[in-house]
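job 3f2a | input accepted
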Amino acid sequence: MTIAPPRAGASFHRSHRLRRTAALRRLVRETRLDPSAWVLPVFVDARASEVTPIASLPGHARWPIARVAEMAERAAAAGLGGLLLFGLPDEKNDGRAAADPLGPVPAALRTIRSRVPDLALIADVCLCEYTTHGHCGIVRDDGAIDNDATLPLLADAAIAYAAAGADVVAPSDMMDGRVGAIRGALDLAGHVETAILSYAAKFASAFYGPFREAAECAPLFGDRAAYQMDPPNAREAMIEIAADITEGADMVMVKPAGPYLDVIGAARARYDVPLAAYQVSGEYAALHAAADRGWIDLRRAALESLTAIARAGADVTITYFALEAAEWLRR
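job 3f2a | predicted structure (331 res):
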């Protein structure tokens, strides 16, 4: 049977007209990627004298304090929005080392600030890298996390990072009340201009494995399900975000990003503060592993994943792809 061509003025919409060429597709693109909205995670190792590659995070390494500014200079040259700093100390203890003013994060902040003054510097605030047991808070004798006893240690760490030059401190521990404790402590210490980016909806995810290798912070016993969010709970995430905003968070985060695009979208629809999303280590490693096997095109898949995060509503994306993706966009 022969189908007659559509008549002029036919009722269907010809969407293909604006997809016909690459130039037209660029012109009408709804979501645009911008490296200035990307933040690169960086691991600073107080024990390291050389840059040490991280096997599960291809292209990433633990940086010695003396050389971490090199990474900051690369990030600034690529037009990235900032860095998110994690520290590995000389020695782990009960977590109090997180607040050491001579520790890896404060030392890195001072070094970077002196050489790259215009890059936004964010310091992760948590105890897991600094505790012998790998948990994010003080552990009681019964093995449970002591939420309230942990808060002063987090506040002390935030003060140390602010004093060393952090623009933003980012509590990732998921203790209840930590944003209020940190905000009050910062203000009392005279750091009223230091902003807080709260990991407000951080889920107990299976996608954190490579990070825990990189930061040497896997729990020695149990897991973090008692204080990080249960993955099935999206409505609860809105409660967590609202609580952190009320306590003084200037920005909020959803972590991980890719498996929780619905949570990002719901948060964007409900709250007007800047919204960040963390494309975590497992997401990055999975794409690299698939590309290494020839199953996907890494560039296309990575940029598509970053587009999805931005399309869902994230204003800021923390991603291990930041430097690679910035280079891809320049080509």
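job 3f2a | The chain has a mean pLDDT of 94.
job 3f2a | closed
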